[in-house]
Amino acid sequence: MEYARAELEKAASTIGVRLLAEGELPESEIIQRVYLISGLECLLNAYQHAGATEMRIVILRNKQRRTVALRYTNNGSRPTGRIQPAGGLQLIRSAVEEAHGAMSYSDQADFSLEIELPMP
Amino acid sequence: MEHIPEKPNQRPRVLIVEDQRMPAQVFAQNVTESGRYQLAESIQSADAAYFYCATGQVDLVLMDVITKFGANGLNASARIKRAFPQIKIIIVTSYPEVGWLDRARQIGVDSFWYKEVAAEPLLSVMDRTMAGESVYPDRSPRVQLGAASSYDLSKQELAILRDLITGATNAQIAEKNHLAPSTVKTYIERLMDKTGFRSRTELAVRARECGLVIQKE
Q1: Averaged in consecutive runs of 10 residues, what is the pLDDT profile of chain A (120 residues)?
Q2: Chain A hits for B55, Cβ within 8 Å
Q3: Is the full-model pTM beyond 0.95?
Q4: A65 touches chain B (CB under 8 A)
Q5: Is A7 on the interface with B (CB under 8 A)?
Q6: Does A37 reach chain B within 8 Å, measured CB to CB?
Q7: Residues B176, B168 contacting (CB under 8 angstroms)
Protein backbone atom coordinates (compact mmCIF):
# COMPACT_ATOMS: atom_id res chain seq x y z
CA MET A 1 0.00 0.00 0.00
CA GLU A 2 1.22 3.52 -0.76
CA TYR A 3 2.70 5.43 2.15
CA ALA A 4 0.06 8.20 2.18
CA ARG A 5 -2.79 5.73 2.26
CA ALA A 6 -1.18 3.63 4.98
CA GLU A 7 -0.41 6.71 7.10
CA LEU A 8 -3.99 7.95 6.81
CA GLU A 9 -5.41 4.54 7.76
CA LYS A 10 -3.07 4.35 10.75
CA ALA A 11 -4.15 7.81 11.90
CA ALA A 12 -7.84 6.93 11.54
CA SER A 13 -7.40 3.74 13.55
CA THR A 14 -5.88 5.66 16.49
CA ILE A 15 -9.12 7.65 16.93
CA GLY A 16 -11.54 4.87 16.07
CA VAL A 17 -12.78 6.31 12.79
CA ARG A 18 -13.44 3.83 9.97
CA LEU A 19 -11.92 4.82 6.67
CA LEU A 20 -13.72 3.82 3.47
CA ALA A 21 -11.51 4.54 0.47
CA GLU A 22 -12.51 3.81 -3.11
CA GLY A 23 -10.33 4.15 -6.17
CA GLU A 24 -6.66 4.02 -6.97
CA LEU A 25 -4.28 6.70 -5.77
CA PRO A 26 -1.63 7.71 -8.36
CA GLU A 27 1.99 7.13 -7.38
CA SER A 28 3.01 10.76 -7.92
CA GLU A 29 4.57 12.15 -4.73
CA ILE A 30 2.89 15.52 -5.07
CA ILE A 31 -0.55 13.89 -5.35
CA GLN A 32 0.20 11.55 -2.46
CA ARG A 33 1.20 14.53 -0.35
CA VAL A 34 -2.03 16.38 -1.13
CA TYR A 35 -3.95 13.19 -0.31
CA LEU A 36 -2.20 12.87 3.05
CA ILE A 37 -2.59 16.53 4.04
CA SER A 38 -6.23 16.80 2.96
CA GLY A 39 -7.12 13.38 4.33
CA LEU A 40 -5.68 14.12 7.78
CA GLU A 41 -7.40 17.52 7.99
CA CYS A 42 -10.76 16.04 6.94
CA LEU A 43 -10.28 13.20 9.41
CA LEU A 44 -9.52 15.62 12.23
CA ASN A 45 -12.54 17.78 11.42
CA ALA A 46 -14.81 14.75 11.04
CA TYR A 47 -13.72 13.47 14.44
CA GLN A 48 -13.55 16.71 16.41
CA HIS A 49 -16.37 18.79 14.94
CA ALA A 50 -18.81 16.30 13.43
CA GLY A 51 -18.33 13.36 15.81
CA ALA A 52 -18.06 11.06 12.79
CA THR A 53 -17.31 7.35 13.04
CA GLU A 54 -16.73 6.89 9.30
CA MET A 55 -15.01 8.90 6.62
CA ARG A 56 -15.39 8.09 2.94
CA ILE A 57 -12.81 8.99 0.31
CA VAL A 58 -13.52 8.59 -3.38
CA ILE A 59 -10.59 8.79 -5.79
CA LEU A 60 -11.60 9.27 -9.42
CA ARG A 61 -9.21 9.42 -12.34
CA ASN A 62 -10.26 11.23 -15.49
CA LYS A 63 -8.01 9.87 -18.21
CA GLN A 64 -9.24 12.29 -20.88
CA ARG A 65 -8.57 15.38 -18.78
CA ARG A 66 -5.52 13.75 -17.15
CA THR A 67 -6.73 14.66 -13.69
CA VAL A 68 -7.49 12.92 -10.45
CA ALA A 69 -10.33 13.98 -8.14
CA LEU A 70 -10.50 13.37 -4.39
CA ARG A 71 -13.83 13.64 -2.56
CA TYR A 72 -14.17 13.46 1.21
CA THR A 73 -17.40 13.00 3.16
CA ASN A 74 -18.22 11.68 6.63
CA ASN A 75 -21.20 10.31 8.56
CA GLY A 76 -21.03 12.89 11.34
CA SER A 77 -23.40 15.70 12.20
CA ARG A 78 -24.02 18.47 9.69
CA PRO A 79 -22.17 21.77 10.07
CA THR A 80 -24.24 24.17 12.18
CA GLY A 81 -23.05 27.28 10.36
CA ARG A 82 -20.77 28.50 7.64
CA ILE A 83 -17.30 26.98 7.84
CA GLN A 84 -14.58 29.55 8.32
CA PRO A 85 -11.56 28.60 6.19
CA ALA A 86 -9.04 28.64 9.05
CA GLY A 87 -5.70 26.84 9.47
CA GLY A 88 -6.62 23.36 8.23
CA LEU A 89 -8.48 24.35 5.07
CA GLN A 90 -5.84 26.96 4.26
CA LEU A 91 -3.15 24.32 4.59
CA ILE A 92 -5.02 22.06 2.17
CA ARG A 93 -5.50 24.98 -0.24
CA SER A 94 -1.75 25.72 -0.20
CA ALA A 95 -0.90 22.09 -0.94
CA VAL A 96 -3.51 21.93 -3.72
CA GLU A 97 -2.29 25.17 -5.31
CA GLU A 98 1.29 23.94 -5.16
CA ALA A 99 0.12 20.92 -7.15
CA HIS A 100 -1.66 23.29 -9.61
CA GLY A 101 -5.05 21.91 -8.62
CA ALA A 102 -8.34 23.34 -7.40
CA MET A 103 -10.54 22.66 -4.40
CA SER A 104 -14.03 23.41 -3.20
CA TYR A 105 -16.06 22.50 -0.15
CA SER A 106 -19.68 22.50 0.81
CA ASP A 107 -21.19 23.26 4.21
CA GLN A 108 -24.77 23.69 2.96
CA ALA A 109 -25.91 20.19 3.89
CA ASP A 110 -23.40 17.46 4.75
CA PHE A 111 -19.81 18.59 4.69
CA SER A 112 -17.85 17.56 1.64
CA LEU A 113 -14.48 18.54 0.23
CA GLU A 114 -13.54 18.08 -3.41
CA ILE A 115 -10.10 18.43 -4.89
CA GLU A 116 -9.05 18.12 -8.51
CA LEU A 117 -5.38 17.71 -9.40
CA PRO A 118 -3.59 17.46 -12.72
CA MET A 119 -1.69 14.22 -13.30
CA PRO A 120 2.05 14.84 -13.73
CA MET B 1 15.33 14.71 36.85
CA GLU B 2 11.99 16.08 37.95
CA HIS B 3 8.48 15.68 36.56
CA ILE B 4 9.11 12.33 34.89
CA PRO B 5 6.22 10.18 36.17
CA GLU B 6 6.97 6.62 37.34
CA LYS B 7 3.68 4.94 36.43
CA PRO B 8 3.70 3.51 32.87
CA ASN B 9 0.41 5.13 31.91
CA GLN B 10 1.72 8.53 32.99
CA ARG B 11 4.95 8.32 31.08
CA PRO B 12 5.30 11.10 28.50
CA ARG B 13 4.07 9.94 25.11
CA VAL B 14 6.60 10.47 22.33
CA LEU B 15 5.85 11.02 18.65
CA ILE B 16 8.78 10.23 16.36
CA VAL B 17 8.81 12.05 13.01
CA GLU B 18 11.63 10.53 10.96
CA ASP B 19 11.58 9.27 7.38
CA GLN B 20 14.77 7.22 7.56
CA ARG B 21 14.18 3.71 8.82
CA MET B 22 17.37 3.22 10.84
CA PRO B 23 17.26 6.42 12.94
CA ALA B 24 13.52 5.93 13.48
CA GLN B 25 14.18 2.45 14.87
CA VAL B 26 16.98 3.70 17.12
CA PHE B 27 14.79 6.52 18.49
CA ALA B 28 11.91 4.11 19.09
CA GLN B 29 14.26 1.74 20.91
CA ASN B 30 15.56 4.62 23.03
CA VAL B 31 12.02 5.57 23.96
CA THR B 32 10.68 2.11 24.76
CA GLU B 33 13.76 0.87 26.61
CA SER B 34 14.11 4.02 28.70
CA GLY B 35 11.35 3.04 31.09
CA ARG B 36 10.55 6.75 31.35
CA TYR B 37 8.73 7.34 28.07
CA GLN B 38 6.19 5.56 25.92
CA LEU B 39 6.01 5.53 22.14
CA ALA B 40 2.86 7.27 20.89
CA GLU B 41 3.59 6.72 17.21
CA SER B 42 6.38 6.75 14.66
CA ILE B 43 5.61 8.53 11.38
CA GLN B 44 7.61 9.49 8.31
CA SER B 45 6.04 12.80 7.31
CA ALA B 46 5.95 16.04 9.29
CA ASP B 47 2.61 16.69 7.57
CA ALA B 48 1.04 14.05 9.84
CA ALA B 49 2.47 15.33 13.14
CA TYR B 50 -0.22 17.93 13.85
CA PHE B 51 -2.95 15.27 13.71
CA TYR B 52 -1.45 13.27 16.59
CA CYS B 53 -0.93 16.43 18.65
CA ALA B 54 -4.47 17.71 18.00
CA THR B 55 -6.01 14.40 19.03
CA GLY B 56 -4.25 14.49 22.38
CA GLN B 57 -1.91 11.57 21.82
CA VAL B 58 1.43 13.33 22.33
CA ASP B 59 3.52 15.06 25.03
CA LEU B 60 6.86 15.22 23.24
CA VAL B 61 7.76 15.28 19.54
CA LEU B 62 11.13 14.22 18.14
CA MET B 63 10.99 16.07 14.82
CA ASP B 64 13.27 15.64 11.83
CA VAL B 65 13.45 18.64 9.48
CA ILE B 66 13.46 17.14 5.99
CA THR B 67 10.85 14.39 6.01
CA LYS B 68 8.77 12.26 3.63
CA PHE B 69 7.55 14.09 0.50
CA GLY B 70 9.84 17.01 1.47
CA ALA B 71 7.54 18.07 4.31
CA ASN B 72 9.42 20.50 6.54
CA GLY B 73 9.57 19.67 10.25
CA LEU B 74 10.16 23.29 11.23
CA ASN B 75 6.95 24.40 9.50
CA ALA B 76 5.06 21.58 11.21
CA SER B 77 6.60 22.55 14.57
CA ALA B 78 5.49 26.15 14.13
CA ARG B 79 1.88 25.04 13.61
CA ILE B 80 1.98 22.67 16.58
CA LYS B 81 3.52 25.28 18.88
CA ARG B 82 0.91 27.89 17.90
CA ALA B 83 -1.95 25.55 18.78
CA PHE B 84 -0.42 23.45 21.57
CA PRO B 85 2.42 25.33 23.25
CA GLN B 86 2.48 22.79 26.08
CA ILE B 87 3.66 20.02 23.74
CA LYS B 88 7.46 19.80 23.84
CA ILE B 89 9.37 19.58 20.56
CA ILE B 90 12.97 18.53 19.98
CA ILE B 91 14.36 19.03 16.48
CA VAL B 92 16.59 16.09 15.52
CA THR B 93 18.60 16.55 12.36
CA SER B 94 21.80 15.48 10.67
CA TYR B 95 21.95 18.54 8.38
CA PRO B 96 24.28 21.33 9.46
CA GLU B 97 22.09 24.05 7.82
CA VAL B 98 23.02 27.09 9.86
CA GLY B 99 19.66 28.85 9.55
CA TRP B 100 17.67 26.13 11.29
CA LEU B 101 18.90 26.88 14.80
CA ASP B 102 17.64 30.48 14.58
CA ARG B 103 14.35 29.45 12.97
CA ALA B 104 13.74 26.79 15.64
CA ARG B 105 14.27 29.36 18.40
CA GLN B 106 11.95 31.85 16.67
CA ILE B 107 9.07 29.41 16.50
CA GLY B 108 9.49 28.27 20.09
CA VAL B 109 10.93 24.79 19.56
CA ASP B 110 12.07 23.61 22.99
CA SER B 111 15.33 21.85 22.10
CA PHE B 112 17.60 21.04 19.19
CA TRP B 113 19.79 17.94 18.78
CA TYR B 114 22.26 17.02 16.03
CA LYS B 115 22.09 13.31 15.28
CA GLU B 116 25.68 12.44 14.48
CA VAL B 117 27.74 14.96 16.38
CA ALA B 118 25.83 15.68 19.60
CA ALA B 119 27.91 15.37 22.75
CA GLU B 120 24.87 14.65 24.90
CA PRO B 121 22.70 11.53 24.45
CA LEU B 122 19.21 12.11 23.10
CA LEU B 123 17.57 10.66 26.21
CA SER B 124 19.32 13.20 28.38
CA VAL B 125 18.08 16.02 26.13
CA MET B 126 14.57 14.55 26.33
CA ASP B 127 14.72 14.44 30.14
CA ARG B 128 15.96 18.01 30.39
CA THR B 129 13.37 19.21 27.87
CA MET B 130 10.51 17.54 29.75
CA ALA B 131 11.83 19.14 32.94
CA GLY B 132 11.38 22.55 31.33
CA GLU B 133 14.88 23.25 30.04
CA SER B 134 15.62 24.46 26.54
CA VAL B 135 18.65 22.58 25.21
CA TYR B 136 20.36 24.03 22.18
CA PRO B 137 23.88 23.57 20.81
CA ASP B 138 25.92 26.78 20.72
CA ARG B 139 26.25 26.56 16.96
CA SER B 140 25.71 24.23 14.02
CA PRO B 141 28.43 21.66 13.26
CA ARG B 142 31.47 22.90 11.35
CA VAL B 143 31.29 22.04 7.66
CA GLN B 144 34.06 22.39 5.13
CA LEU B 145 33.11 24.07 1.85
CA GLY B 146 36.15 23.96 -0.40
CA ALA B 147 38.90 25.91 1.34
CA ALA B 148 36.51 27.61 3.75
CA SER B 149 34.95 26.44 6.99
CA SER B 150 31.28 27.21 7.53
CA TYR B 151 32.39 29.35 10.47
CA ASP B 152 34.29 31.60 8.04
CA LEU B 153 31.09 32.64 6.24
CA SER B 154 28.93 35.56 7.33
CA LYS B 155 25.13 35.39 7.75
CA GLN B 156 24.69 37.49 4.61
CA GLU B 157 27.01 35.27 2.59
CA LEU B 158 25.06 32.21 3.77
CA ALA B 159 21.74 33.85 2.86
CA ILE B 160 23.02 34.50 -0.65
CA LEU B 161 24.39 30.97 -0.90
CA ARG B 162 20.97 29.64 0.14
CA ASP B 163 19.38 31.43 -2.81
CA LEU B 164 22.23 30.58 -5.18
CA ILE B 165 21.56 26.84 -4.83
CA THR B 166 18.04 27.36 -6.19
CA GLY B 167 19.54 28.49 -9.50
CA ALA B 168 18.42 32.08 -9.00
CA THR B 169 20.07 34.86 -10.99
CA ASN B 170 21.91 37.74 -9.31
CA ALA B 171 18.92 40.00 -10.00
CA GLN B 172 16.53 37.53 -8.33
CA ILE B 173 18.83 37.10 -5.33
CA ALA B 174 19.20 40.86 -5.07
CA GLU B 175 15.46 41.45 -5.06
CA LYS B 176 14.87 38.78 -2.42
CA ASN B 177 17.58 40.10 -0.12
CA HIS B 178 16.92 43.82 -0.76
CA LEU B 179 20.36 44.35 -2.26
CA ALA B 180 21.73 45.76 -5.51
CA PRO B 181 22.67 43.13 -8.13
CA SER B 182 26.22 44.45 -8.08
CA THR B 183 26.39 43.81 -4.32
CA VAL B 184 25.21 40.22 -4.85
CA LYS B 185 27.90 39.80 -7.51
CA THR B 186 30.50 41.01 -5.00
CA TYR B 187 29.24 38.58 -2.34
CA ILE B 188 29.40 35.65 -4.77
CA GLU B 189 32.92 36.62 -5.86
CA ARG B 190 33.91 36.77 -2.18
CA LEU B 191 32.38 33.32 -1.59
CA MET B 192 34.33 31.92 -4.54
CA ASP B 193 37.47 33.56 -3.24
CA LYS B 194 37.01 32.07 0.25
CA THR B 195 36.11 28.58 -0.96
CA GLY B 196 38.46 28.45 -3.91
CA PHE B 197 35.78 27.28 -6.34
CA ARG B 198 36.14 28.57 -9.87
CA SER B 199 32.51 28.88 -10.86
CA ARG B 200 29.20 29.78 -9.20
CA THR B 201 27.81 26.45 -10.40
CA GLU B 202 30.54 24.53 -8.58
CA LEU B 203 29.98 26.70 -5.50
CA ALA B 204 26.22 26.02 -5.56
CA VAL B 205 26.55 22.29 -6.18
CA ARG B 206 29.11 21.77 -3.41
CA ALA B 207 27.17 23.92 -0.95
CA ARG B 208 24.06 21.87 -1.61
CA GLU B 209 25.96 18.57 -1.35
CA CYS B 210 27.48 19.32 2.05
CA GLY B 211 24.13 20.40 3.54
CA LEU B 212 25.43 23.75 4.74
CA VAL B 213 22.42 25.44 3.19
CA ILE B 214 19.13 23.79 2.25
CA GLN B 215 16.60 25.12 -0.20
CA LYS B 216 13.59 26.43 1.65
CA GLU B 217 10.28 24.57 1.26
Answers
A1: 90 96 93 96 92 95 93 85 74 94 81 89
A2: 14-15, 44, 47-48
A3: no
A4: no
A5: yes
A6: yes
A7: yes
